[in-house]
Structure formats: C-alpha cells, structure tokens
Design a protein that fits this description.
CATH architecture: 3-Layer(aba) Sandwich
Shape: globular
CATH topology: Protein Transport Mog1p, Chain A
Order of helices and strands: HEHEEEHEEEEH
Number of strands: 8
Number of helices: 4
Structural class: alpha+beta
CATH class: Alpha Beta
Strand content: 25-35%
Number of domains: 1
C-alpha cells in the first residue's frame, strides 16, 4: 500500500505543535540537557496528543529537541509516521532499543531518530548534528514510558 493510500485510509495525524508551557511527563529538562548537550530553558507541550509531545526550548526561544510518542491504530500508521520523519530512502536504519525499527540521520541541519514497534511510533528531532543524541533521547523516552 502506498503512503497516499495509507494516509487516505488511516488518516495520518499531523505533526504536533508546541503550545502550553509545562513539564514533559517522560523526559526531564535535565535528562535532555545531559543527553543532548544543550541547555534547556523551557518546555512546551502539545496536549492534543497523549502522551503530550514535548518541545525543549533554548535561551533564544528556539526548539532544540522535539519528542512525539504516537499511539496509533495500526502498525502501518506508525511505520508511515516514521517514514515521514526519517524517510527510508535517505536515512540509515535505526534499531534501538531491541524490537524497534526505523530510520536515523544527522547533519548540519540537525538530527532525527524515528522508530516504531507495533502501533507505536517515537519521533525525535534535535538541532545537534549527531543522530546518536536523538537516539539516546528516543531510548530514554521509550524506557521511561515502559514501551
């Protein structure tokens, strides 16, 4: 089934957007600073998704890390969300933690680590160029949520 067919049939959700100031329920600002290497000044949440999508903000007001854990209706939707974030055609394979799969890439524009397991997708972006930092954040979120 093509991406368009999956999007039409299952209604792929739009990406979350930062909104409400708050505390991320699965990653602390301290953990993000430690794993990403950049100071976090504040956290914004998108409460329209559960668990909330978390956006970690630096002192200049820029998003330095975003984390979205999507609990979907099917593994096809989760896989398509991963492919939308880290397209299979131009990213390296991602397979951490065990049982999860997806894609990763990094560079001057930042890094992404996106993985799925069953109907769950975990999508992480960072302004840091190393995808290992996004990977560490994804694994920490998965561990904290017991996924």
């Amino acid at each position: 089934m093509t991406t368009t067919a999956i999007a039409t049939r299952y209604g792929l959700p739009t990406n979350p957007n930062p909104g409400t100031v708050g505390v991320c329920p699965y990653l602390t600002a301290y953990n993000v600073e430690s794993l990403n290497g950049v100071r976090v000044d504040s956290v914004l949440l998108d409460l329209s998704v559960q668990p909330p999508a978390c956006f970690f903000i630096d002192g200049a007001g820029d998003i330095i890390v975003s984390v979205w854990v999507h609990h979907g209706e099917s593994s096809m939707v989760a896989a398509e969300l991963v492919n939308r974030s880290a397209p299979i055609s131009n990213t390296a394979p991602a397979a951490e933690p065990t049982g999860w799969s997806g894609g990763r890439s990094g560079g001057d524009e930042g890094a992404v680590y996106a993985v799925a397991k069953g109907a769950i997708a975990v999508l992480v972006t960072t302004t840091q160029p190393q995808s290992v930092k996004a990977q560490r954040l994804a694994v920490a979120a998965i561990d904290e949520l017991g996924l």
